[in-house]
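Project standup — Tuesday

K.O.: blocked on the structure for the chain from last sprint. Re-posting the sequence here as requested.
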Amino acid sequence: MKKYKYLLKLVRVLGIIAVYFLVTLSVTAAVENNFDDDFGKAVTSQQSELLLKKYPDKGKEIVPKLESKISSEISNKGFGNRFVIKEIMPQSGSTVSMTIGQQGEDLIFLSEFSSDVIPMVNNLSSLFGDYCIHRFAGRVQLNVGDGIYTFISEENKINRLTFVLMPAIGYVYLRGKGKIILKDGKEINLGY
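H.V.: unblocked you, prediction finished:
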């Protein structure tokens, strides 16, 4: 009789565990399906930003699409009231996207998303071509012309301070949170 009661309890426990795993798997599948549907429906940059808030764990998939959408919107509609550094203009070079960090005096180029490309180059200007997207990790100083621009970004990689180099416009703020210290010392907060 004791064996029977023990086996009955064991079967109940195993049944509860099995139901738990089935529910977990179906919920996970539903969330994945919802994300795929929402991701496919996100046409504008605002919809993609909302998607990023709804699915922060999907940043690796959403951020490159979002950056591309914002860049296209700027190309098609203009930069509007977005912050622009007109002194930082595109150079001859490839169109790449990357994250820029700094250790000491050295700039570090990181590939954080599948769309990121960091070519082997002999000079820095080749990383500043038309439509290049630059995300900043931490505090980064860029020496441009006769001054230094300091970019201070949040460490969260899905909300890094991000700029795009637009021909005939300059270095246009795309998205993310952080602060810029201009060469004249003026501080600009973005994304807050």
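K.O.: great, moving the ticket to review. Confidence is low (pLDDT under 50) at residues 25-31. Residues 2-41 form the longest helix (40 residues).
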